[in-house]
């Protein structure tokens, strides 16, 4: 009998010993980081509300109880009973029975009403029908990404169960080494922005954090080929952690599966869905630009199948000697700070991913309280000496002013924006301004992936800022459902129509004017002197966005769009820049994050910024807070302990 | 046709083009780092003295010319001719013909006379007989190690030729990467003394420098198992460089071959022979102490077979982008500083190995002039704030005084000493003191491996200090042949006899009284109050030597030596310590090495010293010379460029 088998036998004995005699335990199995307990008496288990919590704290494991398949009632009958138990106002939109796990997935508009106070409704369901209910929210705006992911996972349920059992056994394997050390290896994202990728390693475990590309520098991918990365095989990694879905962190995650990786990806649920959306788009763009994509869309599906979603604050064993906890990073939907607790109190490292320190309209500010943390790996995008940004109140006033001036001229406002994050933030500004009469009510057209990204945001309101979450729970207050918002889904015809009509605001991808429907909008409204083009995000060197920002007004429109080669578009519109809507903490925010961090870490590695930014920030933190700080290069390894 | 084949074809064409028309070129092959040119006209080649040098500088390769096997004269006839050409005073002791390579190995007491002025005698031999002469020195004292190694290599000549051809092709393979970086990874020997092991890596190449054990801490071996070391297979290393034969640098070199390594070991010729001697003894000791040896003696032979000896100053291609040069380190016989030149002027790193900065009786001081060097990896054994040592003149005076006092009492001087290095240094002190009448002439008995180690020293006089080398070339001035020196080869009987006679000096291993014949000497002369026991080397914590130094005089003599268990030996002898004979630079020597180094490196990594020593030295070098200095931990990776 293997070590894991013995361990499971012992756990089963302990559980049998702990539960009342009238509750039978038929099996105990690992499923990813969770311990699943099968019982023929799910109703009695469910009645005993505190039992699971007590077992979990005694065994120091995450525990899920499932009915032994023998005791499940017939789905049709169960369906009736469930619909009786759940109050009608919950708005159940789908019920899905999985005989293999004994779970019934309940999709409802108001999941809280399905759960009931302290889970009382769920327990009643289990008592009545045997099935274990799992609740998901009916997206208020339908998202094809979310439904594709959910359908795919439903269809791959058998495969996924095997994967989770294998991962579970890996996590709970025996420790092999007496050595004690913790190391971080930098594979990218040092003294540069892009291709985020790090390894945290101990004598037992190797975990990869992020695996992104470098926008504007195709081919500059993380140093995966060196021996300490995948040189000894992708299977040598225990786990992958994805802080958030931006491509500079996620683009090459699916590539790992092409290289033979077959383990878990830990991230939040929205990060999983957004990664699916953005990596598939990444493949599309590569194909359109005639570049060979680094992997096929099949690998994106593999990645999604291997995702183990964690909620903020869940403490999860990911290997024999590492516990992972994700915390809100305030940057984009589902973005996380990844906190690693190594050994039994041996060492703690937090990877910031990308952070926004203060609250925005969309998100609560980044968490900076941890039980312990000795080393912080900190993003430094705006870490430079002078990287202070306009504060958001002033930025919003500036934007409103530009919109009012343009409206007064009878023109349109064209805003290139990234689909994920900044678009939704601007939508919230516009919705409030119209509601409060600061700008006139007018159509806001959303083009490109913005609508889909917004739909994903509304699917996961628990990841949004508290007050916004509460508003989304009530359809009549959901700001994203405001009448002014229009999804451009009618192609060129609809765009022409919008162009022919009166004042409007247009939000369209891509955010740096490097392709996508914004190119079409440039043709429709760019030559109109009444139009104002407003940049609200960073425009990288070499992009068309940066050129227009710098005064270019003769735009070559070679390809696509049904026009001949060599045509030139002459822009006559005003061009404005409104900063302050960044998803990143500015220099002050980064300093405040560290200053108020609790506990204060001993060491900080400044990464995810150009050479000057990381060195400025490293030096400032050293002098202000007397910590050991570093501005690592790529391909270095730091040992702690 | 592979890249290497094409390259060889091109080289052959270039050579054919360059040599006079009447010299035929039949083949061109790589053999390790050398390019071997086969010709049917070796005599004409030899006549044209400058041709090889010109070819070498034009092709930027090390070139060896060999006769096409067809043109070699019959060995018996060649033997006669060769003996006629070489002057009798050269003292030829052996001739050995190798038909496969066309070489004749000439062993002579005076190799210089075989070589002739600027190689004139060698060229004449080639002209007369076709064979290529290779000259080795007849050891003035016969060394079984040296003759075993030479016989073994003779016997493995075919195998070795295959190995060298394979390595040659590896070295001259095509470069694969456009990246440019240089990294050092620390696998041991950081903030500790022992288990020296480093990797220097570039996008093309990975080279291991040293692979030692940690004396007094069995099991604390270099971190070979991590992915960036051998995790992706021992075959992933391009080369191994051994700075010197001490076990803290060499003990685990043979283990690499057990792990599947099959590439070259670059070191000096004496380092190769001493490594053979010391690692075989290392296996013996492990067996005697009942520990499982980490590898079998077969692996020592594999290591020797894969050695490619380099002379100090030879610039050698060891991979497509790295050139290695060894320089005298002044520490023990054949000890080297390993200088790596990366790329075409890209970066230079020097690994000090262990160094002695000033001249000693045995060796010239360490070299610290290099064409270029940006980073120095520096030993720090005596790097601590107060690690200043008595200078050698005073130390010698102290030793002489102790010897005279003991002689006056009619007693014996017992000196525990390491076989390699310090024993020979003491022998030179004693020889001179007796010759100059500073101490009375008396027998000096050499026990343990000291005699054998001395024999190896006299085999390689070109590695000794200039004036010592010159003396060894004349038998009547060779200090190691002084009449007073006696090799104890008669076992207990001879020792008893020495004990029963009058005043004498006894040098015996082991140096820290942890085993070996010194244990027997303790019994023979230790209880005699007329005896003086003199420590001339560092005694590590936990050794019997350290205990005796601290005043212990009741020695448990449990096992071996024909005595019963539980016997106790009571020492009545005087115990003295004379420091200043260390093979390591002291704090002042380390500072002077760096201060006068030319060019001054930008960065220094202080290693091979305990935590305090490395940090003290790192901080001192930073403050005095304003360089970037580090005291790395094991398992870190530093990137340069
Ligand atoms: Zn981001
Ligand atoms: Zn980022
Ligand atoms: Zn520093
Ligand atoms: Zn040494
Ligand atoms: Zn050493």
Automatic annotation (TrEMBL), chains A, B:
Residue limits of the Beta-Casp domain?
Answer: 423-548
Region described as KHb: spans on this chain = 73-140
Record key words, sorted = DNA-binding, Endonuclease, Exonuclease, Hydrolase, Metal-binding, Nuclease, RNA-binding, Transcription, Transcription regulation, Transcription termination, Zinc
Per the record's keyword annotation, is Cytoplasm included, yes or no? no
Cite the binding residues for Zn(2+) 2: 248-249, 354, 608
Q: Does the keyword Transcription regulation apply?
A: yes
Where is each Metallo-beta-lactamase domain found?
194-407
Cofactors that this protein relies on: Zn(2+)
Q: Where is this region: Metallo-beta-lactamase C-terminus?
A: 583-641
GO MF terms on file?
DNA binding; RNA binding; RNA endonuclease activity; RNA exonuclease activity; zinc ion binding
Quote the record's binding site residues for Zn(2+) 1. 244, 246, 331, 354
Quote any Pfam family the record assigns.
KH_2
Q: Its Enzyme Commission number? A: 3.1.-.-
Q: Which residues form the K Homology domain?
A: 98-165
Enumerate the Gene Ontology biological process terms.
DNA-templated transcription termination
Domain of life, per lineage: Archaea
| Cofactor binding annotation | Binds 2 Zn(2+) ions, which are required for nuclease activity.
The record describes its quaternary structure and partners as: Homodimer. Interacts with RNA polymerase (RNAP), interacts with the Spt4-Spt5 complex.
Family affiliation: Belongs to the metallo-beta-lactamase superfamily. RNA-metabolizing metallo-beta-lactamase-like family. FttA subfamily.
What's this protein's name?
Answer: Transcription termination factor FttA
**Annotated organism of origin:** Halorientalis brevis
Q: What is the lineage of its organism?
A: Archaea, Methanobacteriati, Methanobacteriota, Stenosarchaea group, Halobacteria
């Amino acid at each position: 009998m293997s070590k894991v088998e013995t361990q499971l036998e012992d756990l089963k004995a302990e559980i049998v010993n702990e539960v009342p005699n009238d509750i039978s335990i038929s099996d105990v199995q690992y499923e990813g980081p969770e311990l699943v307990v099968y019982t023929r008496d799910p109703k009695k288990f469910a009645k005993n509300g505190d039992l699971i919590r007590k077992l979990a704290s005694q065994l120091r494991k995450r525990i899920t109880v499932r009915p032994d398949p023998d005791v499940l009632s017939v789905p049709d009958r169960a369906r009736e009973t469930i619909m009786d138990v759940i109050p009608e106002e919950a708005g159940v939109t789908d019920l899905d029975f999985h005989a293999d796990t004994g779970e019934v997935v309940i999709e409802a508009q108001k999941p809280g009403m399905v759960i009931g106070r302290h889970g009382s409704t769920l327990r009643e369901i289990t008592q009545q029908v045997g099935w274990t209910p799992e609740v998901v929210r009916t997206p208020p705006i339908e998202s094809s990404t979310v439904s594709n992911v959910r359908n795919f996972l439903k269809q791959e349920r058998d495969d996924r169960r095997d994967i989770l059992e294998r991962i579970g056994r890996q996590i709970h394997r025996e420790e092999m080494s007496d050595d004690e050390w913790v190391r971080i290896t930098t594979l990218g994202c040092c003294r540069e922005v892009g291709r985020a990728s790090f390894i945290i390693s101990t004598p037992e475990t190797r975990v990869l954090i992020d695996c992104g590309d470098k926008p504007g520098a195709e081919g500059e991918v993380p140093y995966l080929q060196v021996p300490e990365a995948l040189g000894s095989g992708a299977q040598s990694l225990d786990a992958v952690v994805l802080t958030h879905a931006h491509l500079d962190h996620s683009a090459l995650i699916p590539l790992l599966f092409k290289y033979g990786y077959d383990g878990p990806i830990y991230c939040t649920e929205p990060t999983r869905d957004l990664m699916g959306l953005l990596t598939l788009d990444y493949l599309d763009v590569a194909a359109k630009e005639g570049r060979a994509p680094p992997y096929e869309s099949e690998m994106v599906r593999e990645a999604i199948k291997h995702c183990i979603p964690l909620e903020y604050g869940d403490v999860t064993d990911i290997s024999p000697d590492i516990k992972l906890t994700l915390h809100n990073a305030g940057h984009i939907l589902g973005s996380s700070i990844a906190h690693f607790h190594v050994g039994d109190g041996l060492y703690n490292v937090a990877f910031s991913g990308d952070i926004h320190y203060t609250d925005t309209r969309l998100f609560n500010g980044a968490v900076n309280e941890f039980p312990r943390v000795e080393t912080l790996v900190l993003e430094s995008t705006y870490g430079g000496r002078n990287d202070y940004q306009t504060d958001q109140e002033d930025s919003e006033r500036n934007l409103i002013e530009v919109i009012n001036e343009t409206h007064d001229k009878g023109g349109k406002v064209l805003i290139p924006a990234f689909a994920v994050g900044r678009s939704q933030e601007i939508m919230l500004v516009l919705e409030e301004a119209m509601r409060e009469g600061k700008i006139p009510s007018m159509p806001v057209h959303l083009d490109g992936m913005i609508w889909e990204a917004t739909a994903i945001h509304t699917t996961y309101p628990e990841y949004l800022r508290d007050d916004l979450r509460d508003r989304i729970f009530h359809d009549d207050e959901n700001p994203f459902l405001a009448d002014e918002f229009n999804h451009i889904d009618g192609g060129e015809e609809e765009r022409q129509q919008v162009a022919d009509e009166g004042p409007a605001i247009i939000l369209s991808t891509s955010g740096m004017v490097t392709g996508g429907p914004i190119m079409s909008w440039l043709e429709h409204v760019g030559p109109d002197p009444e139009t104002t083009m407003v940049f609200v995000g960073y425009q990288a060197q070499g992009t068309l966005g940066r050129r227009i920002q710098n005064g270019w007004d003769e735009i070559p429109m070679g390809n696509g769009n049904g026009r001949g080669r060599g045509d030139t578009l002459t822009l006559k519109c005003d061009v404005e820049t409104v900063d302050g809507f960044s998803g990143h903490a500015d220099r002050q925010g980064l300093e405040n994050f560290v200053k108020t961090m609790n506990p204060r870490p001993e060491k900080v590695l400044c990464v995810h910024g150009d050479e000057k930014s990381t060195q400025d920030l490293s030096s400032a933190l050293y002098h202000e807070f007397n910590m050991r700080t570093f501005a690592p290069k790529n391909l270095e390894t730091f040992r702690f302990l």
